[in-house]
Write a structure and sequence with these properties.
The chain is of the alpha/beta class. 34% of the residues lie in helices and 20% in strands. The chain is built from 11 helices and 13 strands. The strands form 2 sheets. It has a 9-stranded mixed sheet, with helices on both faces. The chain has a 4-stranded parallel sheet with strand order 10-9-11-12. The protein is globular. The relative contact order is 0.16.
């Protein structure tokens, strides 16, 4: 899904949808109040957000898992497996396809084991039975089934909370004030251009940057494509790496590419003498036999003060 233009400002369209937004946010609040979450016997860390669309949750979850490993504990991810047909399974990257388990779980599985289930509590139980010492939830802040020992809210510093209204009037998944009351800390990815720190009050805030890893041996021309929440962020990252991006193609978030779509991209790249570059999230959805035709821009989170984040995780999750 492309971000609707009216999510940026409180224009007439946003205000007309405001009543529906109140219903949406109210239903989220009600669902959270009615369901008592299940508490498990290992720490649960939620990497969530208050807005729809890409904020950097998945690379943040991967980075958090790396820090947990450095603390001597074994993290497992739990995910609902959005877009997949399977549930109640541990992801096997050698066996499972994106259509079966979703694209993000396959991406997460490169760092740690992943348990998928729409019921996050059941996913956590399965992870624990397989050896999890810490659970990292990629998304799920608004999911009431699993008790969170520590909840981070991830914000894109460039867009913040948009017009501050709930879906469909704006990007918020729930009312801002009720959301931050349930969170333990916030993470701002990129420069804070929207005054988020002031809005978050006294909540602990950690800052990070999404950094692109080197992408060597690029041709003089690049065709970029992505099926993510904000594809323009990916294209800008490529340009910052020095790539000459001559064409871009946007696909819906979590899009599964058809053979024809991929073949058309390959044919265009050959015609223009260009490299085809996409995101890691999209790359896992390309069939193995076609992958040699594509390059992937890998990213990672670099923290302004990783030591402070490490101490925070160690203290609040009682990882010693």
């Amino acid at each position: 899904m492309r971000t609707p233009s009216h999510w940026k400002n409180k224009n007439l369209c946003a205000l007309a949808l405001w009543p529906l937004g109140c219903v949406y946010a109210g239903m989220t609040t009600l669902r959270l109040k009615l369901k008592k979450p299940t508490k498990v016997n290992v720490p649960v860390i939620c990497i969530g957000n208050l807005t729809a669309g890409g904020t950097g949750k998945t690379p943040t979850a991967v980075s958090i898992a790396k820090i947990i490993k450095s603390l001597g504990k074994e993290p497992f991810f739990v995910s609902r497996g959005y877009g997949g047909t399977l549930s109640g399974v541990m992801v096997d990257v050698q066996k499972h396809t994106p259509q079966q388990v979703g694209d993000e779980p396959l991406l997460l599985a490169r760092e740690a084991k992943v348990s998928i289930n729409a019921d996050r509590a059941e996913a956590a139980k399965k992870a624990i039975s397989n050896g999890a010492e810490v659970i990292v939830m990629d998304d799920g802040f608004q999911n009431p089934t699993l008790y969170k020992d520590l909840s981070f809210l991830v914000f894109d510093g460039g867009v913040g909370t948009g017009n501050g209204l709930p879906v469909p009037a704006g990007p918020l998944r729930e009312f801002f004030k009720s959301g931050i009351k349930r969170a333990d800390a916030a993470i701002i990815i990129g420069e804070d251009k929207c005054g988020l720190r002031e809005k978050l009050g006294r909540m602990p805030v950690f800052e990070g940057q999404i950094c692109s890893l080197p992408l060597p041996d690029l041709r003089s021309k690049v065709i970029a494509f992505a099926g993510i929440g904000r594809p323009e962020k990916f294209y800008n990252s490529l340009r910052e790496c020095g790539a000459n991006v001559v064409q871009t193609f946007d696909f819906p978030d979590h899009h599964y590419y058809t053979p024809k779509e991929l073949e058309d991209l390959i044919a265009l790249a050959k015609k223009l003498g260009a490299d085809l570059v996409t995101t890691a999230k999209d790359f896992v959805k390309i069939p193995n036999k076609l992958k040699p035709n594509f390059k992937v821009l890998e990213i990672e989170i670099r923290w302004k003060d990783e030591g402070a984040l490490r101490e925070f995780l160690e203290k609040l999750t009682k990882i010693n």
